[in-house]
Amino acid sequence: MMITEKTLETVINHQFQSANEALLNNKSVEISGFGKFFFNQKKAEKRMETLKKTQQTLLNILASPETTEQKRVSTEQKLQFTLSNMEALKPKLHEN
After folding, report:
1. What are the beta bridge partners of residue 36?
2. DSSP bridge partners of 30
3. SS3 string of 8-76?
4. pLDDT in tens, the chain (96 residues)
C-alpha cells in the first residue's frame, strides 16, 4: 500500500482518540485482533489515594520555611502534575 506518512499518522491518532473516548464512555474497549481493555475501578481508587497522599506531602514541602527556591519550583511542578492526574481520574471515579 502506498499511504503517505501524514495519512497514516492521522488514522492512528484517530484510532487512539476513539479508543480513549470509548474507555471514558464505556469503561472498556475492544480492538479486533489486539485485545479487550477495561477500566479497573479499584486500581483507580488506589491511585487516587496515592495521589492525594502525594499532594499532601508536596503541600507540606511548599509550606516549610526551610524549602529552597529550587526545591520549591521543582515541588510546584510535581504538584501540578499530581493535580492534573487527579483531575483526569475524577470523572471515572464519580460515575458509579
Report:
1. 30
2. 36
3. HHHHHHHHHHHHHHHHHHHCEEEECCCEEEECCHHHHHHHHHHHHHHHHHHHHHHHCCCCCHHHHHHHH
4. 688 999 999 999 998 888 878 777 777 888 888 888 888 889 989 999 999 999 999 999 999 999 999 999 999 999 999 999 999 888 878 744
Which residue pairs from 42-45 have beta carbons closer than 8 angstroms and sit at least 24 positions apart in sequence?
Answer: 44/89, 44/92, 44/93, 45/93
For 30, the 3-state DSSP assignment is strand
Q: What is the residue type of 53? A: K
Positive or negative: CA dihedral 36, 41, 45, 51: positive
Element (H, E) at 36: strand 35-38
**Do 71 and 61 contact (CB within 8 A), yes or no?**
yes
